[in-house]
Design goal:
single chain, 180 residues, alpha+beta, 4-stranded antiparallel beta sheet
């Protein structure tokens, strides 16, 4: 791990993420099986959002777009649940993570204009996405999730030495940033 990565990780922690660590770029294996899970539409965004499959591009597109990046970090926000049905904390942690992630992207873009962020969950910038009738309203701010790229997030975390499961009665939202 080089100094830039260490400084990047510390900056993410200072920004408010619960956990951050180096991203093993060799762990970025784009899997059609993950896209198949998207197709099952459990999150109700498949074929309804510009940043979700199929609109976000193919596995081949994802592979090509990431090829130019040499390092990155994983960031996580961890919520402590009162019980396994604590949906309020699950949602609040997810919203916190999305807000923090978006803020950190804007801060980093000043120094790294070619940064590639991959978020957690579908893009929610707009109350209702314009897909497929009109172009995306915010193409520079909207981002696709790691899953939309076809990444098995728990495997990426494991191969990067970052815990994916942070203990009983926790919820973890995971995203990453890639840099050239």
């Amino acid at each position: 791990m080089d100094y830039n990565t260490e400084a990047f990780i510390q900056e993410a922690i200072d920004e408010g993420f619960s956990q951050a660590g180096p991203l093993n770029t060799k762990a970025l294996v784009f899997m059609p099986e993950v896209r198949d899970m998207c197709r099952a539409d459990r999150c109700r965004s498949y074929n309804k959002n510009w940043r979700c499959p199929p609109a976000c591009g193919s596995i081949e597109d994802a592979t090509k777009s990431v090829a130019a990046y040499s390092y990155g970090i994983i960031v996580q926000s961890i919520g402590k649940l009162e019980d396994k049905f604590d949906y309020e904390t699950m949602q609040a942690t997810g919203e916190y993570h999305k807000t923090l992630f978006a803020s950190f992207i804007e801060k980093l873009k000043v120094r790294y204009p070619d940064i590639l962020p991959m978020g957690a969950g579908t893009c929610t910038l707009c109350k209702k996405c314009t897909y497929p009738d009109e172009p995306c309203r915010f193409p520079e701010q909207s981002i696709s999730s790691m899953e939309a790229y076809g990444l098995w997030v728990s495997k990426v975390c494991e191969l990067s030495g970052i815990p994916y499961n942070n203990g009983n009665l926790t919820i973890t939202y995971t995203s990453c940033f890639l840099l050239k």
